[in-house]
């Protein structure tokens, strides 16, 4: 396979990139940080300017990379592959305190594949070699047939040889309906790569923490909580977990035990459809009730793009600035086709 040299400005770093490899992949494997979130050409976070050379723009969503931006020489580096030597200019700033772990390929064996709620499975993979990652990051799981899907890691970075995922079934979804919920069982060999994403716990931020999760958006929060417990980092943390019904509320006992053992942690499960002994309503509405003013906090939001967008609005209404909010949108193929959730503000972090 032909390879090309890609120079990344303003760093001036040079990397080799194959014609069948994306520029983002080549950079992350060399330990060079470039901003990215979905790695599927959907969100626009990895947009960069191609200053010199030719690239195949790949499967970039027309909503995330507009025609006018293509004409101006922009590309989404998570799907763009070189066709000649390139010079690209991206935002390469690494936030202080955030470790950079080069992307690696890993193989492993499924140790656990269990239903933990209706249409939600916990999959634990024992890797042949450990993977280093920051709490909150995700892996790309290889789906039989050649495609990949992103899943957030719920396990602790201290135990990089064991990757836990929380996976929700998507109707007619290739990876979920077609594999994980159909035939995946303990003992099966799987491959994945990682870590990816910039949604991770920021150890240098000392403000009280709001963890706001919808459905399986809980997974990265679990990794962050495990990390806090294991490292003894002291933060006041409130976790909201929003689901539809009581049956959907998984791992509640674990959070209740954590709350009983640590006075820095508060667990606030919320049901949007059922009345029960606890709170009912959607996370953004409960947040607005509990925090008319949220300034002085740092918030991490993860779930479906609609849940994330509504929660962002509630947080900003409560006077939390975009610089104090980190988000992970669980985009899927339907969101990509609709193109309604591309984030255009550079102020909003992922
Ligand atoms: C950074 C990131 C992290 C994620 N982490 C998690 C996680 O921890 N847990 C989790 O459960 N999910 C997570 N997701 C979502 C996950 O990656 C998959 O998108 C999801 O599991 C669906 O995959 P699938 O292959 O089963 O469905 P897909 O085949 O991708 O399809 C998804 C849905 O879209 C529909 N669809 C397919 N093509 C089209 C089309 N052209 N037009 C309209 N509709 C279409 C399908 O019928 C299906 O309902 C994450 C996503 C991102 C971006
Ligand atoms: S990371 Fe490239 S478009 Fe989302």
UniProtKB/TrEMBL annotation:
Family matches, as Pfam families: FAD_binding_6 (PF00970), Fer2 (PF00111), NAD_binding_1 (PF00175)
Domain of life: Bacteria
Record's keyword terms, sorted: 2Fe-2S, Iron, Iron-sulfur, Metal-binding
PROSITE patterns in alphabetical order: 2FE2S_FER_1, 2FE2S_FER_2, FAD_FR
Sequence ranges assigned to domain 2Fe-2S ferredoxin-type in this UniProt record: 4-94
Matching Gene3D superfamilies: 3.10.20.30, Nucleotide-binding domain of ferredoxin-NADP reductase (FNR) module (3.40.50.80), Translation factors (2.40.30.10)
Chain ranges of the FAD-binding FR-type domain: 103-202
Cofactor needs: FAD
The name this protein goes by in its record: 2Fe-2S iron-sulfur cluster-binding protein
Top-level taxonomy: Bacteria, Bacillati, Actinomycetota, Actinomycetes, Kitasatosporales
């Amino acid at each position: 396979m032909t390879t090309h040299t890609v120079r990344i400005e303003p760093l001036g770093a040079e990397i080799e990139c194959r014609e069948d490899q994306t520029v983002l992949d080549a950079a992350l494997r060399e330990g060079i940080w470039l901003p990215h979130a979905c790695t599927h050409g959907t969100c626009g976070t990895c947009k960069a300017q191609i200053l010199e050379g030719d690239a195949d723009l790949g499967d970039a969503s027309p909503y995330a990379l507009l025609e006018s931006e293509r004409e101006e020489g922009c590309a989404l580096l998570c799907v763009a592959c070189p066709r000649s030597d390139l010079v690209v200019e991206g935002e390469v700033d690494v936030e202080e305190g955030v470790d950079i772990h080069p992307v690696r390929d890993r193989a492993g064996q499924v140790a656990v594949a269990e239903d933990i709620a209706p249409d939600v499975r916990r999959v634990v993979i024992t890797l042949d070699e450990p993977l280093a990652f920051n709490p909150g990051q995700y892996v790309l799981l290889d789906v039989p047939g050649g495609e990949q899907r992103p899943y957030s890691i719920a396990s602790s970075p201290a135990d990089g040889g064991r990757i836990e995922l929380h996976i929700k079934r998507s109707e007619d979804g290739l990876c979920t309906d077609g594999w994980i919920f159909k035939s995946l069982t303990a003992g099966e060999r799987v491959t994945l790569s990682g870590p990816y994403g910039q949604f991770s716990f920021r150890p240098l931020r000392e403000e009280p923490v709001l963890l706001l999760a919808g459905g399986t958006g809980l997974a990265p929060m679990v990794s962050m909580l495990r990390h806090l417990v294991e490292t003894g980092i002291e933060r006041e943390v409130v976790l909201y977990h929003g689901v539809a019904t009581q049956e959907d509320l998984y791992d509640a006992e674990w959070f209740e035990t954590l709350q009983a053992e640590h006075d820095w942690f508060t667990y606030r499960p919320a049901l949007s459809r059922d009345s029960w002994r606890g709170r009912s309503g959607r996370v953004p509405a409960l947040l607005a009730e509990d925090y008319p003013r949220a300034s002085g906090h740092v918030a991490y939001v993860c779930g479906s793009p609609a849940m994330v967008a509504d929660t962002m609005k509630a947080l900003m209404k409560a006077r939390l600035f975009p610089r104090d909010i980190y988000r992970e949108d669980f985009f899927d193929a339907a969101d990509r086709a609709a193109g309604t959730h591309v984030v255009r503000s550079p102020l909003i972090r992922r």
